[in-house]
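Quarterly update, task 2.4: cytidine-5'-monophosphate-bound model.
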Amino acid sequence: MQAIDQTAPVRVRVPAKVNLALCVGDLDQDGYHPLGTVFHALGIYDEVVASPAPDGHTSLTISGEGADELPTDERNLAWRAARLLAGRHGDPAMGVALHLKKQIPVAGGMAGGSADAAGALLACSVLWDLDTTPDDLHSLAAELGSDVPFGLLGGTAIGRGRGDQLVPMITRGTYHWVLAMAHEGLGTPGVFRRFDELQARPGARPSSTDIPSGVTAALACGDVRALGAALCNDLQEAALDLRPELRETLQAGLDAGALGALVSGSGPTCAFLAANEAAAMDLRAALGQAPTVRATRRTTGPVPGASLIG
Ligand code: C5P
């Protein structure tokens, strides 16, 4: 067996996610909402580079999308992931120099911060040559945040509980997506709070964590049109209430031929499903003209979760 070079940096890439279905129950006593969701990993990646730090310290630098908006200390989830891993499975004195190369939008509803934490867990585990199992990393990931375990897993998966209880799904097909980034981010807690306020109104539809069978059936047979029609997100109304201009973004994509359109997670990024690659190119060009859109990306899913890269 080849020995691990413990002086070389370890590089990991972790995908963004979109929730193809996001069904939200009533707020629990613990301050969280139970979820029934279908996670889908998209080919937009953050890269986490973990380099040895001989002095036993932790440091963090960030480049790329939204880098100046993010903290580079223990407030960053990637930093906390490294410290949690060292404390539980290594030695608290283990040091690391972390670098994040970001492509996933910050505060965009695509689990960018969670991806960085998942990447830090895997990269540090390799750098420090720890005997961690996938289950060990999953448990730490669930402690760090609801979306972190899916960053490790990738693919397409049902999520229950807070989103951390995952069951991988066997699906058919590769799907073509266009993402429309908004001018300003949205905080997840605020969107859940607005969801609670909207649910408290008389006549609101009762909350449910039941995932509509249309989404899972479409994925099982690779029917892109049926999937487009079945996409659903219970947080969408709350995100639209906070950012009414997102309605224009969604409509612009539908007018340009998207088979389905939805706010990604807690938003404000909007995700559009296209019939094929050519349709996705046309859709991207049209969305790029919308005044409510800051930037667009074209991508495909599903893709694998956190992976070591050379
Ligand atoms: O788990 P995470 O730290 O990503 O969640 C951020 C916030 O989003 C939580 O503090 C909570 O306010 C809200 N949240 C929720 N129900 C979930 C997941 C997150 O209310 N299932």
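Highlight for this quarter: The radius of gyration is 19 Å.
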